[in-house]
Amino acid sequence: MPLHSSKLPDSENVERLGGTDKDDSELDSHAQELLREYLANNSEEYRRLRDLRKKGWENSQGDKYFKRQRQTADAPDEKMHEFFYNMMKNIAVLLY
Questions:
Q1: Distance from C-alpha of 44 to C-alpha of 46, rounded to nearest angstrom
Q2: pLDDT tens digits, the chain, 96 residues: what are they?
Q3: What is the crossing angle of helices 21-42 and 44-58, to 10°?
Q4: Do 39 and 46 touch, CB atoms closer than 8 A?
């Protein structure tokens, strides 16, 4: 099929070309696993970060901290409401 064609390929052609979502997600997962394995074998910094991340996920204090953060964001008092408003204004200025 020419690159400039506006006709979308039918599902039979997509499968033949190897472009199904299922294939893509399996390839992505496999590629991620290969990358993690490579980095674990070749990067001390990656191993340290991986271990810190694991330690953080296993710590119940982290759950308590993020629960408090969610509660503050979901039901802010007047001071926090103003803080969030100004933060969003600053982000908008940076993006503009």
A1: 5
A2: 444 444 545 555 445 445 455 567 777 889 999 999 999 999 999 999 999 999 988 989 988 999 999 999 999 999 999 999 999 999 999 999
A3: 110
A4: yes
**Amino acid (one-letter) located at 11:** S
Whose structure tokens read 């997962």? 29
- The model's pTM is 0.45
- Cβ partners under 8 Å of residue 68, min gap 6: none
Q: Please state, in angstroms and rounded to a whole number, the distance separating the CA atoms of residues 15 and 9.
A: 10
Supply the DSSP string of 42-87, one letter for each residue.
Answer: H-HHHHHHHHHHHHHHH-HHHHHHHHHHHHHHHS--HHHHHHHHHH
Question: CA 67 to CA 89: how far, in whole Å?
Answer: 25
Residue 92 neighbours by CB under 8 Å, 6+ apart: none
